[in-house]
Amino acid sequence: MAATVVDQQTAIPLAKAACKRAAEAVLGDRKVVVALVDDASIAELHERYLHKSGPTDVLSFPHGEIVVSGDTARREAEARGIPPLHELVLYVVHGALHLAGHDDRKPAQQAQMRAAERRILSELGYGDVFGHAETPPKPRPSAGRPAKKKKDPMPKKRKAPQRNPRASAKEESEWERAKRGPTRRLAAAEKAKAAAAKPARKKKGAGKKPGKNTRQEGNAGAPRRER
Q1: Is the dihedral angle over the CA atoms 206, 209, 213, 218 positive or is it negative?
Q2: Distance between CA 87 and CA 22 in Å, rounded?
Q3: Largest Cα–Cα distance of the chain, in whole Å?
Q4: C-alpha–C-alpha distance, residues 82 and 188, integer Å
Q5: pLDDT by residue, tens only, the chain of 227 residues
Q6: How far is 85 from 150, CA to CA, in rounded Å?
Q7: What is the Cα–Cα distance from 22 to 122, expressed in whole angstroms?
Q8: Parallel, antiparallel, or unpaired for β 32-37 and 3-7?
Q9: Report field, pTM of the whole predicted structure over 0.85
Q10: Cα 108 vs. chain centroid, distance in angstroms?
Q11: What are the chain's domains?
C-alpha cells in the first residue's frame, strides 16, 4: 500500500478512502502516511516544528508524512459554501504536492501549485473547490520611493535625402529641392507673398493730362477753338 491514512478526527466522517486516493493521485506508489487530526493536535505540531501558535490546515514533513486538520477543513468549507470533504481532500493534495517538490513561497510558485491543485481535484471528480479564478497580486512600488516616470524620447531630426552619384540631371534638381527642406521653401513663399503685396509701378506717361491736339480728325465731334 502506497498511502496509509490514520483518522483521529471526528469533524468529517468517512474521509479515509477519499484522502488515500488523493495522496496516491499525486505521489503514486511512494510511501506516505496521512494523519487526519483535530485542531488541538495540529496546533501542537505547528508550535513544535514551525514555532507558530494556533491551528493550521496542513503540515507536510520530508520523511513522508502529511497531517491535516478536520476541524479547520469543516470550518473553512462552511465559510466558503463547499462540502467539508472537498476542503479536506484539498489539504491532502496540497501537502502531497509539497512532498513532490512544489513550493509556494513566491507568487509564480503559488500560481503553479494552485494550477496543479485544480487539475488534480478535477481529475478526482471534485471540480473547482476554489470557486473563482485567482490572480497573483501586482507588484507594489517600494515604500518612500515614487515610481519613476519614463522620459519621452527625443524627437528625431529629419534627415535630408542622400545624394545618388548616378542620378540624372532631373533627379539631381529634385534632390537639391528636397535638400533645401521646408524652411527654405517657406522663406521663398513668404518672399513671393511680399512681392505680390507691393503696389504696381506706374507706366511712363500714365496719369498725365492729354496734350492739345490741333488735328481736326483727332477732335472729331468736339467744337473747334477760335483764336
Answers
A1: positive
A2: 12
A3: 156
A4: 82
A5: 689 999 999 999 999 999 999 999 999 999 999 999 999 999 999 999 999 999 999 999 999 999 999 999 999 999 999 999 999 999 999 999 999 999 988 999 999 999 999 999 999 999 888 865 444 444 444 444 444 555 555 555 544 444 444 444 444 444 444 444 444 444 455 566 667 766 656 555 555 554 444 444 444 343 433 33
A6: 52
A7: 11
A8: parallel
A9: no
A10: 16
A11: 3-123 (3.40.390.30)
190, amino acid identity: E
Backbone dihedral angles phi then psi of residue 19, each to the nearest 5 degrees: -70, -35
Cell, residue 131:
470557486
Strand ranges for the chain from DSSP E: 3-7, 32-37, 58-61, 65-69
Q: Which residue has the cell 488523493?
A: 22
What is the grid cell recorded at 211? 496734350
